[in-house]
């Protein structure tokens, strides 16, 4: 009897929609040969969505296969309810060995191994990484953690990484390479048993200039000194280099290209390891970004409007690739709407894992095996974040609420708008007055969905405990 398929999920952080060179709409200066290799051997999705335009709620959605609004509303720091299983919990109960390496971003318990949101408490056997929105790429030692006034910010964080139930210094190493090294070790130790591996890179999140010199040199980007406690607080250093100003806006793209080249090389190392272990054909891989690209890192979302923090397409439509050589021929492009909500049901079906979970996503396997069936999502997809609301149904998308500005993050009132995103991918022509029936239909669907989310029983099963953001 053939072994159940292995599952590998690779998440990038704030990667632009135009920043994989396999796409026809790719930016002219981007080169991602290893992500392209994954696409050439798998399926490239052009209309893939996440459930929020920022990382924490987006990750809660894909990890559970459920809209995170069922328990958390729109907040930045979405927790994991105790009555909703994660994919790791489903697969661990089915006999899978589970490991996560990289960014862990849920709830209020950052820098703590105590809350449910910590990986070892929601289904993972092994974890190396950090729990916060962001972490310095280079400053990974106990020494700098102890000598810095403020090492434990939600985004501006640095110091040792979690290593299962302890914390470990990584010397002068670089997070993208550390996470890959640990993931390769996991693969080599568990090659003969079914595994679920998540590699959640903090690349290409801020601080985008932090890249090994060999990559900076290739892209003509000037090295910037790494943080040192003599510079003051780490928060000030992060603010100085995390926005345009200190770094000229025109220079961010060079740092971004250097950063993503390092990321792509490390994706290649993972793929090479699967090949060398002779387990690539029976490994189902997903690669996607957690949300849209960030304008002050140099990411490009062309031809979409908007970016991270907005529910325009540029905030919620993301690069997305799936590969499973045993089941699907490579080199395919899937043009229909899909969601990262589909990952959990697809993995459960692929592994024949019994579950009674009430999921919002749908399995992709039958549709991908028979493309003539058409789109998976005949019913709407919904978004609710930061006072912004949207629904996508067929070619139509309705947006209402307040638009968050990517630079200031301040909400600005916006009139409701209706777009035909199939004909108007840039969301420039508001058709709400021309298509009033469509507008009303989508508006009613959105109102009904919001009512359903607000009344979901999961809301009373979310243990919001503030662990005061410390180790």
List keywords for this structure.
14 strands; globular; four-stranded antiparallel sheet; 2 domains; alpha/beta; ten-stranded mixed sheet; Arylsulfatase, C-terminal domain; disordered C terminus; Alkaline Phosphatase, subunit A; 13 helices; 471 residues
CATH topology of the largest domain: Alkaline Phosphatase, subunit A
How are the strands of the largest sheet arranged? 6-5-4-3-7-1-8-9-2-10
What is the global morphology? globular
State the CATH superfamily name of the largest domain. Answer: Alkaline Phosphatase, subunit A
- Number of separate helices: 13
Number of strands: 14
* Helix content estimate: 25-40%
Distance between the termini: 45 Å
CATH class of the largest domain: Alpha Beta
Helix-strand makeup class: alpha/beta
């Amino acid at each position: 009897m053939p072994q159940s398929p292995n599952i590998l999920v690779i998440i990038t952080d704030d990667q632009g929609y135009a920043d994989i060179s396999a796409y026809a709409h790719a930016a002219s200066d981007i080169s991602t040969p290893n992500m392209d290799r994954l696409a050439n051997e798998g399926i490239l999705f052009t209309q893939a969505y996440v459930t929020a335009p920022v990382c924490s709620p987006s990750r809660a959605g894909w990890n559970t296969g459920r809209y995170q609004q069922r328990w958390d509303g729109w907040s930045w720091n979405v927790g994991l309810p105790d009555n909703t299983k994660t994919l790791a919990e489903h697969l661990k109960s089915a006999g899978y060995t589970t490991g996560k390496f990289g960014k862990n971003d849920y709830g209020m318990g950052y820098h703590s191994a105590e809350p449910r949101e910590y990986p070892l408490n929601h289904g993972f056997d092994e974890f190396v990484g950090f729990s916060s929105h962001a972490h310095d790429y280079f400053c990974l030692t106990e020494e700098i953690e102890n000598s810095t006034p403020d090492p434990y910010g939600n985004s501006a964080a640095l110091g040792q990484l979690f290593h299962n139930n302890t914390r470990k210094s990584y010397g002068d190493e670089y997070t993208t390479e550390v996470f890959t090294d640990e993931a390769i070790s996991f693969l080599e130790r568990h090659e003969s048993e079914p595994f679920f591996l998540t590699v959640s890179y903090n690349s290409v999140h801020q601080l985008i200039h932090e890249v090994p010199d060999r990559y900076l040199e290739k892209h003509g980007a000037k090295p910037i000194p790494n943080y040192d406690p003599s510079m003051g607080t780490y928060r000030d250093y992060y603010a100085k280099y995390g926005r345009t100003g200190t770094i000229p806006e025109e220079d961010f793209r060079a740092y971004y290209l250097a950063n993503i080249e390092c990321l792509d090389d490390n994706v290649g190392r993972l793929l090479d390891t699967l090949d060398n272990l002779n387990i690539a054909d029976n490994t189902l891989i997903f690669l996607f970004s957690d949300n849209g690209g960030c304008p002050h890192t140099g990411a490009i979302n062309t031809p979409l409007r908007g970016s991270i923090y907005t529910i325009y397409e540029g905030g919620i439509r993301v690069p997305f690739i799936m590969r499973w050589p045993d089941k699907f021929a490579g080199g395919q492009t899937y043009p229909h709407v899909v969601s990262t909500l589909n990952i959990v049901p697809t993995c459960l079906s692929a592994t024949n894992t019994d579950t009674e979970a009430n999921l919002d996503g749908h399995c992709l396997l039958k549709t991908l095996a028979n493309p003539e069936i058409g789109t998976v999502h005949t019913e709407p997809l919904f978004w609710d974040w930061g006072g912004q609301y949207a629904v996508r149904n067929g070619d139509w998308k309705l947006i209402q609420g307040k638009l968050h500005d990517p630079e200031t993050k301040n909400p600005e009132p916006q009139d409701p708008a209706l777009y035909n995103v199939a004909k108007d991918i840039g969301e420039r022509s508001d058709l709400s007055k021309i298509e009033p029936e469509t507008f009303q239909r989508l508006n009613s669907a959105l109102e009904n969905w919001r009512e359903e989310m607000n009344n979901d029983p999961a809301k009373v099963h979310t243990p919001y405990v503030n662990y005061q953001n410390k180790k």
